[in-house]
Give the backbone structure.
Amino acid sequence: MKKVVAVIREQQLEAVIERLLAIGVRGLTISAVKGAGRSGGRREVFRGSAYKTSFVPKVQLEWFGPDGEADAVVRAIVVRAATGKIGDGKIFVSPVEEAVRIGTGERGSSAV
């Protein structure tokens, strides 16, 4: 079983979700996050005053599923999230040792 975590631009979320649904992915967890990286932040204006913020709003998607589907999930995210600019995000893939469904106690990949 694999875990795929993607941190992407907020404005790319709908396109990514649309693509994931098209390839049959179900069961995503989505969180609003802030991050700092190579983009170095951005300048914003609030009540006429400009300021720089180091942390840029992003969206984090998490998917858990069979090993064989992880590559398709990663490809789908890359295709729809890429703009070609710094700050497009990152994808992390890691193994999952076990999953347990809380309501039934079911274990293994069927618990995802």
